[in-house]
Write a structure and sequence with these properties.
The protein is an alpha+beta fold and about 775 residues long. The chain has six domains: about 5-80 and about 160-185 and about 190-205, no CATH class; about 100-135, no CATH class; about 240-360, no CATH class; about 365-450 and about 455-490; about 500-515 and about 720-760, no CATH class; about 520-705, sav2460 like domains (Lipoxygenase-1, Sandwich), CATH 2.60.60. It is about 40% helix and about 15% strand. It contains 29 helices and 26 strands. The strands form seven sheets. It has a seven-stranded antiparallel beta sheet with strand order 9-21-20-11-18-16-15. Strands 10, 13, 14, 19, 22, 23 and 24 form a seven-stranded antiparallel beta sheet that branches. α6 crosses α7, α18 runs antiparallel to α19 (about 380-390) and α23 (about 425-435) packs antiparallel against α24. The two termini are about 35 Å apart.
């Protein structure tokens, strides 16, 4: 274990995600009569410039912190908010359009095509392009308007324009350990933000004793830490099946927790690198790079480690071989690469030898094969008996089985095993049922390679009437509620407990869906918003921003920020690199190069009064990778708003103010998508819905707006956090109150944003 203060940077990056700072002071050490010093007030002033304020306890705690640590805290917050990056866009004072047109680009294109080296009627820019006179107003640009290469950078930003500050609280070492414990025991899969936090806390504190890790994906991070520490025996206890071992091998190789066939990743790499301006063989080159990356080659200590794990599996050989059958093609490669047959010949590896013998001779039957055989024979009792043996797989096949064999027998069989399922799996069934059983709705699929696609309705739906389909949806909802009531009743505090039998549920929680099945793949460094959470717009403007290229050398790298405006009459407009100005929206210009190490930026400004007057219904926020490949790691995208006007620099076009940032996300290194829908503005309600929807299109123009509408509808139909708490109140006979009280159970928005809160609610 490393000393607490040596990891101040990591701890505070984690704490900021939970609206806190961790200066190394414990709660019990905070003096009640502390007097602020000039150094403390300087830190507070810096925090205000970045959009934060501090509560009383944190303010008093900062008085105990050395001045060097205070400066370090200031630097950490500034780095997280990106204040030292380049925020200059292509156009200076871009809120006033430059008047550039498509004709300017055509004239410049032909002028450079015919260029013979002299420029009597134009200006030669540092990038080498000739800009003819009377085309682009060059005095308005920070770079080349033709190729999008920036020449002038700006690291200064605006500060203090925000109308609302985010309050930071104090977190100490005990809080961090509790957070680590809650992440490890989470009953739902961790999102990308939580996984980064878990990795940081494991690095600092190690694995707590006697912790029960609930999720297999979480266990993979712990196994990685144990292996790095040389504790292979402890890691073996977390790998109970061959699938666990394959998942860890895959995670170690690719950084992804969920297993994908290598050929799927190769095809995806080829698609990601298809570009309208690139030759066809470019995508094949990308596929070859991915094939090379996925090659398996291990040294002998690694091979021995995996052989030891396979040998120690606590199950029979036939049972293990059956589990390996689903990924047989991958297992054949893995067995060969890890030299497992060689280890199987050694003394002490007899279980491994038996497993390989059964696997290669196929001396086993598969559970799925028996299910398929009964289905082919239309034997409903045989299918239901087998499905009841594996409740998790029964849940995943529930809807299709209801349509094939009728809802009554299937639901009766499923009700017998429903209480053995995790609450999150039951919840996912309720969330999906409404759209699945409606033949007019688009079903959404989100494959592991990124993107969101619509699927046709199940063909058997036409065999049922509207009333029958509605009754199926109600049956699933009723079963869920009944099961959850039983679970909450079983966990209720005895009636004679010394506390008030009352509960406060924040009304905002009835608008936030339980994010089961919609785990975020982006990292939220300054907040932890939940999918579907709504943000009120305080002023008349929303400013989108995109910053990418941090830490990269100068190179061509084209990321695009854009938005689509949908109107009540059905028509749409786009504000993007090909259309810099439209009704209620202005774009800062298309940058296609990143400067050395500090990145570059684009903005889009939305005027709510103009949008409302034009009849705009909603505005979809997107970012895209126009370059080959996926969205750039470390790309940060989000939006700003304030009740006060937000400035745009006429000198360099900078329009970023960290204090005005309402929400922002960072693209993680494992990203596999070309585009991301990161928010939807509902103009009439003046609210922004946080919506993370990856897609595989190169430009906004290729985005299917019907998929966005389907996802919004799906979010609205999901069970909300408030509805689940209402079931808890009814099951435990708690009286709802209108205001939080000290002696009542209080569930606020801040409670819901804590990583452990909803997980504990579902950990039944």
């Amino acid at each position: 274990m490393q000393p607490f203060n040596d990891n101040l940077d990591l701890l505070n990056r984690v704490a900021l995600r939970y609206q806190a700072l961790c200066p190394g002071v414990r709660h019990g050490e905070v003096p009640v009569d502390a007097v602020s010093t000039p150094a403390v007030m300087a830190v507070v002033r810096s925090l205000v410039d970045n959009g934060f304020c501090v509560n009383e306890e944190l303010l008093r705690a900062l008085t105990l912190v050395p001045s060097a640590t205070l400066q370090r805290l200031t630097a950490i917050v500034g780095d997280v908010m990106g204040v030292n990056l380049n925020w200059a866009p292509l156009v200076k004072g871009w809120d006033v359009p430059t008047g550039e047109s498509l004709a300017d680009h055509f004239i410049t294109f032909f002028a450079n095509l015919m260029d013979e080296g002299d420029a009597p009627n134009g200006t030669r820019l540092p990038c080498g392009h000739l800009i003819p006179d009377h085309t682009f107003p060059l005095e308005r640009y920070n770079g080349c308007p033709f190729c999008g290469k920036p020449f002038q950078l700006a690291r200064e930003v605006f500060t203090g324009q925000a109308s609302r500050l985010k309050e930071l609280r104090l977190m100490d070492e005990d809080d961090m350990r509790k957070l680590l414990q809650s992440l490890l025991t989470s009953a739902v899969p961790l999102d990308a933000t939580q996984r980064e936090s878990l990795a940081a806390l494991l690095h600092i504190y190690g694995l707590p004793e006697k912790v029960a890790i609930a999720m297999k994906e979480t266990a993979m991070q712990v196994v990685q830490m144990l292996v790095a520490d040389g504790r292979d025996d402890e890691a073996a206890s977390l790998l109970a099946t061959p699938t666990d071992i394959l998942r860890y091998l895959w995670f170690e190789k690719t950084g992804n927790f969920r297993i994908l066939e290598p050929r799927t990743l190769v095809r995806h790499a080829s698609r990601l690198n298809q570009h309208m301006w690139q030759p066809a063989d470019h995508s094949e080159e990308a596929a070859d790079v991915m094939r090379h990356h996925l090659r398996l080659k291990y040294d002998r200590p690694t091979c021995r480690r995996f052989a030891f794990w396979m040998n120690a599996l606590p199950m029979k050989a036939a049972e293990a071989a059956e589990m390996m059958n689903a990924k047989r093609r991958m297992w054949v490669r893995v067995i060969r690469a890890l030299r497992l047959p060689e280890f199987a010949k050694r003394r002490g590896f007899e279980p491994l030898a038996a497993l390989l013998d059964v696997f290669y001779r196929r001396d086993y039957t598969t559970w799925q094969g028996r299910v398929d055989a009964f289905r082919a024979q239309h034997d409903s009792s045989g299918v239901l008996n087998l499905l009841s043996q594996r409740p998790g797989l029964f849940a995943r096949a529930l809807f299709a089985t209801m349509l094939r064999f009728g809802p009554s027998d299937v639901m009766a069989a499923f009700a017998k095993v429903a209480d053995r399922l995790p609450a999150r799996l039951l919840l996912s069934l309720v969330n999906a049922a409404e759209m699945y059983f409606d033949p007019r709705e688009q079903r959404l699929a989100r494959p592991l390679t990124g993107g969101t696609f619509s699927l046709p309705a199940h063909p058997l739906l036409k065999d049922y009437s509207e009333d029958e389909r509605r009754s199926m949806v109600r049956a699933i909802a009723d079963l869920y509620r009944t099961s959850m009531r039983r679970r909450f009743s079983a966990s209720a505090v005895p009636a004679d407990a010394a506390r008030t039998r009352s509960i406060f549920i924040d009304p905002r929680l009835f608008e936030i869906p339980l994010a089961v099945g919609d785990r975020s793949t982006t990292v939220q460094d300054t907040s932890c918003a939940l999918m579907g959470q709504r943000f009120a717009v305080e002023g008349d403007a929303v400013r989108l921003f995109l910053q990418w290229g941090k830490g990269l050398h100068e190179q061509p790298l084209d990321m695009d920020l854009s938005c689509r405006i949908a109107y009540e009459d059905g028509h749409v407009e786009e504000c993007a690199y090909y259309n810099l100005k439209c009704t209620g929206a202005k774009h800062s210009g298309d940058i296609r190069w990143v400067p050395e190490m500090v990145g570059t930026a684009e903005y889009v400004e939305l005027s709510l009064p103009e949008l409302a007057a034009a009849g705009a219904r909603y505005v979809t926020f997107t970012c895209n990778a126009y370059s080959n490949g996926a969205l750039s790691p470390n790309l940060v995208v989000g939006w700003m708003n304030s009740a006060y006007p937000m400035a745009v620099s006429e000198k360099n076009g900078v329009a970023y103010d960290p204090s005005c940032v309402q929400h922002a996300v960072r693209i993680s290194a494992g990203n596999l998508s070309k585009g991301l829908v990161f928010g939807v503005l509902e103009v009439a309600r003046r609210e922004i819905v946080w919506l993370e929807m990856p897609f595989t299109a190169q430009t906004l123009f290729q985005l299917d707006s019907s998929v966005v509408e389907s996802l919004l509808k799906r979010l609205k139909e999901k069970v909300t956090i408030g509805e689940l708490l209402q079931i808890k109140a009814e099951a435990q006979q708690l009286q709802r109150i209108g205001q939080p009280q000290d002696d009542a159970e209080c569930y606020t928005l801040e409670w819901a944003l804590d990583a452990a809160s909803v997980s504990q609610l579902l950990n039944l």
